[in-house]
Write a structure and sequence with these properties.
The protein is an all-alpha fold. About 65% of the residues lie in helices and about 0% in strands. Helix 2 packs antiparallel against helix 4. The longest helix has 22 residues, at about 35-60.
Length: about 80
């Protein structure tokens, strides 16, 4: 199976995903969610907003977003 069929999306999106998982794992290993929950919440919110903004900024029109084509249900 080709990589393009297995991993949908540009490699930069997968790098962003790995970076977010690494940051959240680091925060979890430092027990920030226990010691300073409010800071942890703001960091998670900030990471989420940054990730959405990055995807919106890096998206190219016509990019494939799903494995299967979306069917048009309009009459």
């Amino acid at each position: 199976m080709r990589r393009e069929r297995l991993f949908i999306g540009r490699p930069v999106y997968w790098v962003l995903l790995v970076a977010v998982v690494a940051v959240l794992a680091y925060l979890g290993s430092r027990s920030l969610h226990v010691r300073d929950f409010v800071l942890f919440q703001f960091l998670v919110l900030g990471i989420g907003v940054a990730l959405v903004l990055a995807v919106v900024a890096l998206y190219r029109p016509g990019e494939r977003a799903t494995r299967d084509s979306l069917e048009d249900d309009s009459p």
